[in-house]
């Protein structure tokens, strides 16, 4: 066959080489190409006593809910209340596990829904949304009277810290966290009883208890090895307990010496000792969150750092007599700056009202309904988690884990910390510090000194990267 | 006649080429354009930033790691998969010796093996990845259990949880899931090779290895080359992404040990709100893919045998 013939195979091969192969890989991204949205908001309704946000009573409302550990029923129940209050309004509630894939094109096109539960693995980056002015300021909602008691503002019915968490630099409030999560060290009271032990309040007792457990063939700790950013749930408040709340603020502010602080070093060394002494469950670095929770439920390990969603998430594998508990992290010694009980608690399930939503007043009104006592109680009953509404647990029999979370909150009192690195710098927290530093250290592949150096390097890089929006504690 | 030919071909191709241009080339050109902006992917406004994204790319440690892994995939996967597939196909079709009164045949039970090899092909890659994720589980996975059972407990490790083994564990899954496809492809090609060649070789006393390298491989060259390109695409694109994303979760294994370019594109665009930077990485991926295709086509050019 001569080479000057255009034979079929050559033609195909060259076309393939030129682009058929490679082009689609890049082209896929632009499927969410940007367009510009026009301002097509609905007219506002009249503000009255029953309608303090001035909702247009016949305007449609579109809600998007993350369909994760909490499901969507609680939101549908609240939607029904909205429909009852505004019978002429057409409301739509959609749900997805892929918030970003579904909603990113709509933000780009300028036609986002009116209320979004921006949660889950595909959470849209809040720092970017705020930086690009894509969100509605929720101050109006916070200053509106509560749905239960017209003499109280919504703001005054919330748990401490929730409003601040929704702010990024300054006074506007961009996010309303609906769930309230208690982080800490989770364990089974039954397992401790079997070892004839109390929850250890300082690190020597912790090590002694782990040694005792090891003799019985039980590991002291396990954690989500494939998602080591679960470790900070107990590690960060531990740092704060040792050195005071300023320690965490320095980390959040991406300060040059943040990871070199003595309290940070002490905390990392204490955790590293768990590895050195063999108190970590075998194979933990290869387990994901579900697998590690299951091993913990099976009594293979005593402690696991986690958040209060674990009770609902691990329901299927938790034995009936497990008696799930959460405790604040054990301290280091008597030199600690904060008392035992210092705890990480903060808002979860971030709800946002997009700046370009057609009916922002409706979105906020829906949130006002959800933050009422009835809806809040309904949520707690359904998914055994607290909401940001302060109270709403009276008269409910809480499951053991949640009850212990409420007790832990009581015990913590004012000593609640809320490291913002988790929501300000997602990539830095989860992947750089979580996986590449803490995960490696707890698997024994890096020493605390190396971990500190690396974490500081990543922190410095994030501070110097001006494509990231930076935030500071006031 | 020669003149009219090209017009004739273009006439036929105009519709598909237009579709291709609108739906593939145009978004692709757009992507390159976006790589010069600061588009977040979460808002319609952005501005031009010149080469900022490219400069950032050069000092991005994770990008280089992903590139390194993607290149490793690109070199090793086709090599291992195609060698294995050639070996299996050869054994199935011509590896056997003098049975059923025919000079050339496969090994005993070859039709059964063909089905066994092809089986993984009917499973979606997501399911394969999930199955192996369970198999690699350090506590309850079948792999460590098997090692225990044969007395090799010392070899047990956390597979996907250890940067030393994670990348290899992921690659093994990709080989497992694609080798069967090539066995079938090569088998089909081998059956079209005239039997007389093999019989002549046998009469001359050639052994299996000689037969393979002197007859089978040269006559199969075109098919091998196509397979090579196909495997390269899998290694650079969707399959590598799926396997890494599902099996190692998070940002691509412990200490970035399994990040590959398509996963990094995804993370930047859909987790970090840096869509423009993601398109920049995409452009890098495009360059790698084009270079790969060019090299394979250049190296693969040979005299074609007619039979």
UniProtKB/TrEMBL annotation, chain A:
<dbReference type="InterPro" id="IPR022386">
    <property type="entry name" value="Chitin_NgcE"/>
</dbReference>
<dbReference type="InterPro" id="IPR006059">
    <property type="entry name" value="SBP"/>
</dbReference>
<dbReference type="GO" id="GO:0030313">
    <property type="term" value="C:cell envelope"/>
</dbReference>
<keyword id="KW-0732">Signal</keyword>
<keyword id="KW-0813">Transport</keyword>
<protein>
    <submittedName>
        <fullName>Carbohydrate ABC transporter, N-acetylglucosamine/diacetylchitobiose-binding protein</fullName>
    </submittedName>
</protein>
<dbReference type="Pfam" id="PF13416">
    <property type="entry name" value="SBP_bac_8"/>
</dbReference>
<dbReference type="InterPro" id="IPR006311">
    <property type="entry name" value="TAT_signal"/>
</dbReference>
<comment type="similarity">
    <text>Belongs to the bacterial solute-binding protein 1 family.</text>
</comment>
<dbReference type="InterPro" id="IPR050490">
    <property type="entry name" value="Bact_solute-bd_prot1"/>
</dbReference>
TrEMBL record, chain B:
<keyword id="KW-0812">Transmembrane</keyword>
<dbReference type="InterPro" id="IPR000515">
    <property type="entry name" value="MetI-like"/>
</dbReference>
<dbReference type="GO" id="GO:0055085">
    <property type="term" value="P:transmembrane transport"/>
</dbReference>
<keyword id="KW-0813">Transport</keyword>
<feature type="transmembrane region" description="Helical">
    <location>
        <begin position="7"/>
        <end position="29"/>
    </location>
</feature>
<keyword id="KW-0472">Membrane</keyword>
<feature type="transmembrane region" description="Helical">
    <location>
        <begin position="115"/>
        <end position="136"/>
    </location>
</feature>
<feature type="transmembrane region" description="Helical">
    <location>
        <begin position="166"/>
        <end position="188"/>
    </location>
</feature>
<feature type="transmembrane region" description="Helical">
    <location>
        <begin position="228"/>
        <end position="247"/>
    </location>
</feature>
<feature type="transmembrane region" description="Helical">
    <location>
        <begin position="275"/>
        <end position="297"/>
    </location>
</feature>
<dbReference type="InterPro" id="IPR051393">
    <property type="entry name" value="ABC_transporter_permease"/>
</dbReference>
<feature type="domain" description="ABC transmembrane type-1">
    <location>
        <begin position="67"/>
        <end position="296"/>
    </location>
</feature>
<feature type="transmembrane region" description="Helical">
    <location>
        <begin position="71"/>
        <end position="94"/>
    </location>
</feature>
<dbReference type="GO" id="GO:0005886">
    <property type="term" value="C:plasma membrane"/>
</dbReference>
<protein>
    <submittedName>
        <fullName>Sugar ABC transporter permease</fullName>
    </submittedName>
</protein>
<comment type="similarity">
    <text>Belongs to the binding-protein-dependent transport system permease family.</text>
</comment>
<dbReference type="InterPro" id="IPR035906">
    <property type="entry name" value="MetI-like_sf"/>
</dbReference>
<dbReference type="Pfam" id="PF00528">
    <property type="entry name" value="BPD_transp_1"/>
</dbReference>
<keyword id="KW-1133">Transmembrane helix</keyword>
<keyword id="KW-1003">Cell membrane</keyword>
